[in-house]
Every structure is written in C-alpha cells, then in structure tokens.
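Weekly structure sync, notes
Attendees: PL, DS, HV (note-taker this week)

Item 1: isochorismate synthase
DS walked through the input record. Source organism listed as Nocardia macrotermitis. Sequence as pasted into the shared doc:
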Amino acid sequence: MDGFLLALPGGVVRTEGVRRAFDEAGAAAAELAGGAELIVGALPFDPRRPAALCVPERAWHTAGPWRPAAVPPLPEVRVITEMPSAAEHIARVTKLVEQLADPAQPLRKVVAARSVLARAEEPLDPEVVAAQLASRHPRANVFAVDLSPAGRPGATLVGATPEVLVARHGETVTLRPLAGTMPRHPDPAVDGERSRELLGSTKNRDEHAFVIEWIREQLAPLCDLDIPDEPELISTHEVWHLATPITGRVRDPATTAFDLARALHPTPAVCGTPTDLALAAITEFEEDRGFYGGAVGWCDAQGDGEWVVAIRCAELSADGLTVRAFGGGGIVAASDPRAELDETTAKLRTFLGSLDCAV
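Item 1 (cont.): predicted structure, written out as tokens:
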C-alpha cells in the first residue's frame, strides 16, 4: 500500500506517494517546523524503535465518515499460532499480579499483550481490509499505514481503534482515553449487567484513573484541560470501555497536534505506570509489539491534526499473506489472570472477526 488512510467518523485523510520519509519522530517534527505542509504515519509502541512517518506527495481531506463501496470478498484466513499461548499468557499475568501486589515495589500497572499469527489463502489488500473494518465497525477510527519508512518495505498496519489519543483543531484540544474493559455478551440482560459491573468496578476505575492522571501531568505544561470527575461507558461490538471525554486549549498556538501526541505516547492505557518501569517490564517478558500500542495520525503546517491509539489492529506482511493481530489488557494488583485472557480474546475479535477468522 503506497499511502496512508485515517478515517474518523468526522472526516477522512488519505495520501499517496512519499516526498520524504522519516524513521525518527524528531526529524519529522523538525520537517514540519521547517515548512512541510503535512506529515502522516505511525509511531511504534516503543519510542526507541523506528517510526513510519512521511511527507506525502498528494493528500485529500474529506468531511464526514468513510463509506466504502461494496467490499470485495476476502480470502480465507486461518490462525497459525498464538504468541504466547493462552496458558503462557495466564502464567505471565499471574506473575505480574504477584509483583504488583508487593507494596515495596513501584510498579502500579502493566499492560500485557498477546498476538495471533494468521495466514491468508490469497494476498490481502490492506485497503480492502480497512474497508471491511469500516463496514463492520462504523463508529471506529479506521487506519491503514505503509510501514516502509520504518524499514518494513511493503508491510502495512491496519486497524479499527475506538480510542483517540489527541486531536487539535485551532487552539482546541480533544482526547478520549479508554482504560477499563469488560467483554460484551450476546444476551442483552447479561450485557447490561456487565456494563454496570464495569462502571462500578474498583479495579477498572483505578486502572482508568492512572491514565487520566498521566494525561493531566503530561499536558499540564502545554494545555488548559477540562477533565470530568467521572468516566462514562462506551461500547464496541466486542467490549465495554470506561472512557473520559477531555477538552482543552493549547497555551501556546505553536504547540502542534504532533507535539501533543509525542508528549502523551505511550500512555498508561497501552504501557503502564510508571511508564519507564512498565516499558522495561514489557520489553523483558513480551515479544516485540512493533506498531501495536503506537499512534497513527497526521499533522499539518497549522499544527492541526488527529492521532489515534493503534489498538484493535494487525500488521500485514508485504506479500499480504501473513497477519499478526494484537490484543492487550491493563494488569493491576486486583487483576484476574483468566479474565485478562478473555479480555484479550475479545479485543482480538475486532480485527480477526472482520476477516471471519475464528480466535
């Protein structure tokens, strides 16, 4: 895929071609400050790894939701392996819970993720996959990003995330962090009980509070923020989330959407608390996440832009035959390892279910 797509419910940004590519966020920010009209792309989960950013040759920004034409049928996709296995993920979470329960150590939360490797019978077209995600999840923020600038020629990151990391339009800043999750149930009565259980869950509310405090601390020097006292419920097809809609204003008009995204990433919603210790723990016990848990977005010469959290996503290989999909969950001292496995499975279904691939 030679380009970039980010389709939010309020508008769509698409690009083609690459004028200049960057594997380092600071270089892309300098290019923007030097007069580039637009940068687009993806930040990896680990800020120390190569990014996939560029100044595109051509760009289109259209208002309103993306409504793809009839989506061609997708080839059959089958799971090859899980990384780690379900049993190993439970064991990892159990070990984390024991560590987090020790009051003498400083870690408070760690996000534990796992991935599923799948194989397609015929090459998958990233744009067709994105269109299928948009059809299945019309309220999601759908993206497809060429990862070539990160040294992954032809590979693509594709997903349908419910989470906006940060958006800036003029001096107005908006965020909607998500943390705290409960899988949905097909029975409406049980599903309603689960939503109420999530809203009243001390474990999930504590997990959510870590994220809100992080945002407050990181953006306090840059923005005046209006943060509600209580989270609200939002839902996808697969899960319920605790969400907090945040609005604010930048203190300095020179602060760009890209600056704000870099200040926030990675949030405790995808990494943990404290960030440096959580990142070290994840690096030690997990396989490389690549761009899962990263950020996808754009920023223009005026500093306006939109960045979303790269969750409910997968990396597609250059030949379109291999899919690596991801799901994760926040682990705190009160976490139940089996419930955490179920949460990751529910999240994996957002992407793999759109390919009719059972997990």
